[in-house]
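It would be a great kindness if you could assist me with a short task in structural biology. The matter concerns a single protein, recorded as an amino acid sequence and a row of backbone structure tokens. Kindly check, if you would, that the fold set down in the tokens agrees with what the sequence suggests. Thank you for your consideration; the sequence and its tokens are set out here:
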Amino acid sequence: MSGIPYFDFAATTRVDERVAAVVMHFMLEEFGNSGSRTHAHGVAARNAVEMARVQVAAVVGADPDEVIFTSGATESDNIAILGLADHANQTGRRHIISTGVEHKAVLEPLEHLETLGFEVTYLGVGRGGAIDPADVAAALRDDTVLVSVMHVNNETGVIQPLDAVAQTLASHGAYFHVDAAQGFGKELDLLRNPRIDLISISGHKIYAPKGVGALVTRKRNGIERPPLKALMYGGGQERGLRPGTVPVALVAGLGEASRIAQADHTSRMNAARDIESRIIDFIETAGGSVNGDRDAAIPQIVNASFKGLDSEAFIVATKNLIAVSNGAACSSHAYERSHVLQAMDLEPWQVGGAIRFSFSHDSEFPDVDTLAKVVDSVRF
């Protein structure tokens, strides 16, 4: 693998060696099907899955039986949003509130529901990148069935005010869904709010393998589960919401990654803040500007723009110094300008010249002066 520093961790992370060891163990040794209950191999697999359920639940303060394993946050988002459609139709509550800075995994299911007659209110954000909780209160209606607000923005790192949204919903029956792909295991407190009904999680954002995630389906008052309907059929696995053979090795890996994220949280965050400081130094040295409110962001994602510099030119000029991106991996292949930054009402040069630095607690940022000189050499 290239020795170029990798600063695209918001797209995906490498698998932690401890996690990889667990995954390989359940691939090569304890390889049973967790649905097989007639022999020791199946029992061992089932025990591994249930342990992972405990480990994932612990990060968000949920009960283990509230964790449904999926292929990742995209599938979890789809189950959470589209899975409520039947309930919405039956109750006549077909209004949804979300934001204009959500990931495509939320926006596209919402767009699909709009074609079916649902009404969606998309809340705006200011230049800081966060919604105003008062806007949620203003948009809330008697027929609102769902409020979907992300935890941490995947492009800016800005944390949304989930506690304030939860408070707004305290006396309302709408279900509260949070896409926590970028924040799970990094910012811990907000996801533990019991008013959040549904939480989407992706393993490959926290040093687990690609292809595994979870949907937390928190019970109200410890009794009532969100009235989700399965999108696929063919088995009763995962409480019937996600049929198919459970990928035991991947699930065990997600569980181990969740355990490590909680155990190492303080040291990881302190290290990430040190790297964040170096990135901010570089941005200032190179004459750039940070996008989004850093006081309300996780340290692991920093978005910045450089006047007179197109993001593609930046990436090409620094390709031998650092691996970065100019947006979400789901859309960067199409070179689309960021819908997130446009929703923040940034200037055209800020949108076109935006770079996302996303990193791990053990990343090594390249020499600030060298990087700044390369950037300056390709400005127009």
About this structure: The mean pLDDT is 92. The radius of gyration is 21 Å. The chain has two domains: 17-263, 265-377. The longest strand covers residues 301-306.
